[in-house]
Structures are given as C-alpha cells and as structure tokens.
Amino acid sequence: MAGQVGSVLAVVAVLVALAAAVVAVLRLRARRGIATAMQRATYDVLHTAELAAEPLRAGLTSATAGKAVRHLRTLVGATGLAIVDGRTCLAFDGRGTHHEEQLTSAARRAMKARRSVVLNGSDLPCDRMDCVVRGAVVAPLAGPDGAAEAALVAVSDDQPAPGLVQATLEAARWAGSQLALAELDSSRERLARAEVRALRAQISPHFIYNALTAIASFVRTDPERARELILEFAEFTRYSFRAHGEFTTLAEELRSIDRYLTIERARFGDRLQVRLQIAPEVLPVGLPFLCLQPLVENAVRHGLSRKPGVGMVSIEARDAGAECHITVEDDGVGMDPEVFGRDGHDSEDGQHVGLVNVDERLRSVFGDHNGLVVETALGAGTKVSMRVPKFHPQVRA
Questions:
Q1: How many Å apart are CA 93 and CA 100, to the nearest integer?
Q2: What are phi and psi of 87, to 5 degrees?
Q3: pLDDT, position 346
C-alpha cells in the first residue's frame, strides 16, 4: 500500500514539474512577444489592414474585392460586409447575402448622392424567419475628385450603432485611399509605357537616317562591310522596336549599344573611341528598356559629333552592393547646365529630350532618388550617372 501511494505521489510530482515548465515557457514567450493586450490589438488591426490593402492596391475587381472583403469585415466588426460598384455586388462576406439586391440598390443611390446612408429594418424588409439583418451602413469609396465608383455596405444584426457607423466610414475612407494609390500606380505604369513608345519613335528619325547614309557609303567600296552593317542595323532596330517587355537586362542593353556604336564608328571612323568597364556580376541586373542607349546616343550625337578631332565615350558599370552604378561619359563639347536645368524639352534640336525621358522613367520605376545625375559644362564634356537597384519588385527583365 505504501509503495502504491509513493508511486502516485511521484507521478503527481512529475505532472507538477511539467506544468511549471509549461508556465515558464509561456511566460518567456509572452515577454519576447507583444507584451500588452493593447499592443496585441494594435498589431491585429494593422496586420488585418495590410491583408486588405494588398488586393485593393491591385485595383477594384471581383477577384480583388473577394480577397479584401473578409479582412474589411473584420476591421469594421460587422455581421456582414459587401463591396459594391456602380453595377453589381463585387463581393460579400458574412451573413445577409439574401439582401444583396436591396443593399446594392442602396449603395448605388449613396454613390450617386456622394453621401453615406444608414438603413434600418424598415428599409430592408424580409420574409425569412431566420433573417438577422436589422440595419446597414452604406459608405461610398470616394476618389480624389470626390466621385464614388464603389461603396462599402456593413450589415448589422441590430439597429446600426454609432460605433459601427464610424468604423464603416473610416474603413471606406481608408479603402478609397488604397484604390486611389492603385490608380496612381496604374497611371505611372501607363506613363512609363507611353514614354517607352515615345522614345522608340524619337530614335528612328535621327539614327535611321544616319545609319542608312553610313551603310550606303560602303555599298560600292566595301560590299562586305556594308552587309555586316546592315545586319547590325537590323538587329539594333529589332531590339529597339521589340513588342514585349518594358524591362531588360544590362547585358542586353549593352549588346544593343555595341551594335549602335558599330554603325556610328562606320560614320566617324577613328574619330570615335569607346572605352568599356563592365563588372561581370552586374550584367544580369534588370533596368527599364532603352534607358542606357539614349545616353550613349546623346554622347555621340551631341557631345562628340561637334568636337573636332578624336572623341572618347566611356561606359562604366560597377557593382555597389545592393545597387549597380552606371556612368556614360564623353569628352565632347558639353552642355550649358543652366539651359539643361531650366527646361530640357525646349532644345531646338532635341538635345536633352533623351536625358529627360530616361530620367523620368527611372524615377517612375525606382523613385525620385534614382534619377539621372548630369555633370556638364560648356567645353568640359558630359558625365551622366544612374543608380539601379539590383532587385526591385516592379522589374521583371
């Protein structure tokens, strides 16, 4: 009997020790994690908002609304929540889906009036015995101009309280700002595509004429050289006018530049010297399509073509940790910094259009801190530098 009691006590002692160890581990994790209930609540709200923001930043569609609506309902604390556009209910989460037609109609009226609406039970008649809907809050998602193209509809199982009304209004204001950012991103992408198309059109009148003239000069005197130049010209134009992709790699851009310089050397002969210093590890770096070739063309066409004697174009690409540093430098006639800084678009011969175009495209993709840096003066040549991140979420070369 005494032996059995001793065994029981031993088991109890082991269980107590295990319980103490579990409590100690939980306390240790609590210290390492979020310490207070308020901090935990703040984290939950911010995390939920981030989950809703990601699909909304892609624009408002049935798919993105379906991904965001559950998180928005959690933020608002509603029995059900719908996202409605000007025609239909894009997504619904929670209870009250049988009122979808009524809620969509109320949302359209609120969007047209550009004002929020609180609905009570009499506004949402229903014959179903199990219906829990007793009211709803409709809040338009206003754009920058005040017009609303969508609305949040929060369903309540009681007369909508002031807390639900305020939460819905704030959630709608926040969701509207996310959609505005999505439209801004879309506009920037459209701008970048338009800039690429404009740049492609800009290249053709200047370069094609000079290239064909240079090739024609070899047709009789050196047919084989003319044939090689025609092939180089064909490859260059095929790359410049390709129909796919807004991004490329540094290696592809340099390959196109080599073809361009081959044709230009046919024009200038020994007057045009080229120096390359390219770190092999940066060759796969992605960058906006045709953002380097215009800098080289500007150096040759405007820097060296007006300089008597021999001129040098230097192209350098260095590995700089998380970035690739690229410079294009010439020892040509240079530019007036004041004229360039005042307005590069108004030059009579379009001298600065390529630089301004590339600068705007770099800023639209990588941010304002990644624009071109131009160092120049009359008679002192020109050096153009850019910093390109090695990895960027928008760049898919």
A1: 11
A2: -120, -40
A3: 42
Rounded Cα gap, residues 116 and 137, in angstroms: 7
- CA distances for 22 relative to 12, 81, 117, angstroms: 15, 40, 52
**Residue with tokens 């506004």, as numbered in its chain:** 123
Rg (C-alpha) for the chain, rounded Å, is 33
In this prediction, residues 61-88 reach a mean pLDDT of 90
Q: What is the mean pLDDT of the chain?
A: 81
Long-range residue pairs from 105-108, CB within 8 A, at least 24 positions apart, any chain: 106/136, 106/138, 106/153, 107/82, 107/138, 107/140, 107/151, 107/153, 108/84
Q: In whole angstroms, what separates CA 7 from the centre of its chain?
A: 68
Q: What is the pLDDT of residues 146-188, one digit of tens each?
A: 677 889 999 999 899 999 999 999 988 888 888 888 777 777 7
pLDDT tens track for 99-141: 999 999 999 998 888 889 999 988 999 988 889 999 999 999 8
What was the pLDDT predicted at 49?
A: 84
Single pTM value for the model: 0.55
> What whole-number distance in Å separates Cα of residue 80 and Cα of residue 24?
41
Contact 266, 215 (CB under 8 A): yes
Strands 135-142 and 148-156: antiparallel
Phi-psi group of 16: left, alpha or beta (phi > 0 → left; psi -120 to 50 → alpha; rest → beta): alpha
Can you tell me which residue has the tokens 């304002």?
A: 368
Q: Which residues on neighbouring strands pair with residue 384, listed in sequence order?
A: 328, 374
- Answer yes or no: are the C-beta atoms of 92 and 80 closer than 8 Å: yes
How far apart, in whole angstroms, are the C-alpha atoms of residue 385 and residue 317? 10
Nearest CA among 171, 210, 160, 143 for reference residue 73: 171
Q: What distance in Å separates the CA atoms of residue 223 and residue 220, rounded to the nearest whole number?
A: 6
Q: Which two tokens stand for residue 99?
A: 């009122």
CA proximity to 252, closest of 305, 215, 211, 289 = 289
What's the CA gap between 216 and 1, in Å, rounded?
115
How far apart are the C-alpha atoms of 368 and 360, rounded to whole Å?
Answer: 9
Distance between CA 99 and CA 294 in Å, rounded? 59
Name the pairing type of β-strands 272-278 and 311-320. parallel
